[in-house]
Backbone:
């Protein structure tokens, strides 16, 4: 594995929830990243953010790692979950709640319900 692949692999295995994004969770620099970070922030999920704009090798490396062409990318327990569209759909369908519950990731169900109510 290249250095970037090793670094990515170690990061997603060391933290329960990791979001590769443009910018940071407190200052996203792209609407798609902002949306996923916003959902996780609102749901009170503890997660590690990796700013791909800070490292070109990670920006290209994460696409190779997941075989997914875009950023953001959400990982739970080392597994690639999806980007903005998938995470949005999973939030609205309740699949994200189920995924967090299955993996013992703490989140606010009340906040998730509020997102669903607002988008009903
Ligand atoms: N439909 C995508 C939207 C994300 C997207 O299109 N990201 C683009 C623009 S931020 C991207 O990562 N392009 C490759 C790059 O900038 O390296 C999703 O669901 O996440």
Residues:
């Amino acid at each position: 594995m290249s250095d970037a692949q090793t670094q990515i692999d170690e990061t997603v295995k060391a933290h329960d929830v990791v979001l590769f994004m443009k910018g940071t969770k407190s200052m996203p620099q792209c609407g798609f990243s902002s949306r996923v970070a916003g959902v996780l922030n609102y749901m009170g999920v503890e997660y590690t953010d990796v700013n791909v704009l800070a490292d070109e090798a990670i920006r290209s490396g994460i696409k190779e790692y997941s075989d997914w062409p875009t950023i953001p990318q959400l990982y739970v327990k080392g597994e690639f979950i999806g980007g903005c569209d998938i995470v949005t759909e999973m939030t609205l369908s309740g699949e994200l709640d189920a995924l967090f519950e299955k993996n013992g990731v703490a989140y606010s169900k009340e906040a998730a319900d509020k997102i669903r109510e607002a988008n009903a």
About this structure: Residues 3-118 form a domain with the Glutaredoxin fold (CATH 3.40.30.10). Residues 22, 30, 32, 59, 70-72, 83-85 surround glutathione (CB under 6 Å). The chain has a mean pLDDT of 98. The two ends are 45 Å apart (CA to CA).
